[in-house]
Automatic annotation (TrEMBL):
Species of origin: Amycolatopsis thailandensis
Gene3D superfamilies in UniProt: Dihydrofolate Reductase, subunit A (3.40.430.10)
Superkingdom of source: Bacteria
GO BP annotation list: riboflavin biosynthetic process
GO molecular function: 5-amino-6-(5-phosphoribosylamino)uracil reductase activity
Lineage, top ranks: Bacteria, Bacillati, Actinomycetota, Actinomycetes, Pseudonocardiales
InterPro entries: DHFR-like_dom_sf, RibDG_C
Stretches assigned to coiled coil: none
Bacterial bifunctional deaminase-reductase C-terminal domain sequence ranges: 114-173
Protein name: Dihydrofolate reductase
Length: 193
């Protein structure tokens, strides 16, 4: 089974979006370099960021996201982001009316069921869990193997927390990756069990 990785860009004070679900400058690093990150040409990062992010993205088989993120992005128009094969959406509601059942999106109730479905779909590839409430729930359930953060030099003061509403302590190992890109610090931690 593939490793479960919680991932997202985050402010220095721990937020993935402001109170209005806006990411502000959290993704500016994705256009702050001169190396194309994907085939669209829209994403250009520093060489250091490319060398870290591209191999990671290439290993992701499935992304798990919450229904809130799904709705905010209009379901990515039925196409998983960043070339991901499948998206598992954690929700208590069915797929939206008129949703194309052939789209590679799977709607499940609960984070444990989401991880099971995602690992089934991913095989030996990575399962990525979007940071925020759902990511925090997966961490709290003891199902996250690794935490990756793209820390951006901005302070939000309030907003949507990287770990959601996790209310218990979870220990991580010392970071085994620390990479300084343009306007971003990439960190990787393994979760202690």
């Amino acid at each position: 089974m593939g490793k479960v990785v919680m991932y997202g860009s985050v402010s220095v004070d721990g937020f993935v979006a402001d109170e209005n679900d806006q990411p502000g400058p959290l993704f500016d690093w994705l256009s702050g370099g001169d190396v194309p990150l994907d085939g669209s040409g829209a994403l250009k990062v520093s060489q250091k960021s490319y060398d870290y992010v591209r191999p990671y993205w290439d290993r992701i088989g499935v992304t798990i996201a919450g229904r809130h993120v799904f709705d905010l992005t209009d379901g990515w128009d039925g196409k998983p982001p960043s070339g991901i094969d499948n998206v598992v959406v954690v929700t208590h509601r069915p797929a939206p009316v008129g949703w194309d059942p052939a789209a590679p999106f799977h709607f499940v109730d609960g984070v444990e069921a989401a991880v099971v479905k995602a690992q089934e779909l991913a095989g030996d590839r990575l399962v990525e869990v979007a940071a925020g409430d759902v990511g925090g729930q997966v961490l709290a359930a003891g199902l996250v193997d690794e935490v990756r953060m793209d820390v951006v030099p901005v302070v939000f003061g309030s907003g949507k927390r990287y770990f959601g509403s996790v209310d218990a302590q979870h220990l991580l190992e010392d970071p085994d990756v620390v990479i300084h890109g343009n306007r971003v610090l990439h960190l990787r931690y393994r979760v202690l069990r």
